[in-house]
Design a protein that fits this description.
Largest sheet: 3 strands, antiparallel
CATH architecture of the largest domain: Orthogonal Bundle
Radius of gyration: 20 Å
Strand content: 5-15%
Number of strands: 5
CATH class of the largest domain: Mainly Alpha
Order of helices and strands: HHEEHHHEHHEEHHH
Structural class: mainly alpha
Strand order of the largest sheet: 3-5-4
Distance between the termini: 27 Å
Length: 234
């Protein structure tokens, strides 16, 4: 069975494994409301899709920010109801950007649990190349903020060289944008003391990140649309 986007549908056990949570957690969120109900297929079996997986990832990120379940429910109710998996992923990226970088040392078993899937040696090598993990003996140093993104990239049909080159492009341009925005903010707060600067930065940071992500997302859609049109496949 597939979803309406052509993606393979997931059973509740498969969804829980991919999301790195328990089946009980999935059922709990479904009962409380943060997770939409599954599509009921043959033999009354519930099937889940990419939107459920993306929503679970967002819920997990909001919990990581210290939000209570009631606050998460209110937050999700304010989101447009028709957000797709990609839009939810962008929203999660904005939320994740509010948290300082966190690096933890974990066992292989814990790494696979958080990844929500088994990881072969080649998978670990690719994650290491993307600076998501760093093997240290029998353990791994893991950048928890990048882990889910890195795991998702394992399934992208692109070569490792292309992924790493894309990473370099993004890092270079994001640093340039950060430098220019920082320069603008310096001019705005040049007459203020350090406390005002810190307060302004705390308020502006999530807004700037969301603006950058939204602008980039729209620009990328335009570029891909132009590419498809020129190639005659659009």
């Amino acid at each position: 069975m597939t979803t309406d986007t052509g993606q393979p549908a997931l059973t509740i056990d498969e969804l829980a494994a991919r999301a790195g949570v328990t089946v009980r957690t999935v059922r709990f969120y479904g009962t409380r409301g943060p997770l939409p109900p599954p599509v009921i297929g043959p033999r009354r079996v519930g099937h889940y899709g990419p939107q459920h997986l993306a929503r679970l990832a967002l819920i997990e990120e909001l919990q990581h920010q210290g939000m209570t379940l009631a606050a998460i429910e209110r937050h999700l109710r304010r989101l447009p109801p028709d957000l797709g998996p990609h839009d939810l992923a962008v929203h999660r990226a904005v939320v994740a950007s509010w948290t300082p970088r966190t690096v933890e040392t974990v066992t292989r078993e814990e790494l696979q649990r958080r990844a929500g899937r088994p990881l072969g040696e080649r998978d670990v090598e690719r994650l290491a190349a993307m600076s998501v993990v760093r093997p240290e003996g029998d353990a791994f140093r893991v950048d928890t903020g990048l882990l889910r993104l890195g795991v998702e990239l394992l399934d992208v049909p692109l070569s490792e060289e292309t992924i790493l080159a894309a990473r370099e492009v993004l890092v270079a341009h994001s640093r340039a944008a950060a430098h220019e925005l920082s320069r603008l903010l310096r001019g705005e707060v040049s007459e203020r003391d350090a406390r005002d600067v810190k307060s302004l930065s705390a308020h502006v940071h999530p807004l700037v990140v969301q603006a950058l992500l939204t602008t980039f997302q729209r620009s990328l859609k335009e570029e891909l649309g132009r590419w498809l049109t020129e190639s005659g496949t659009g």
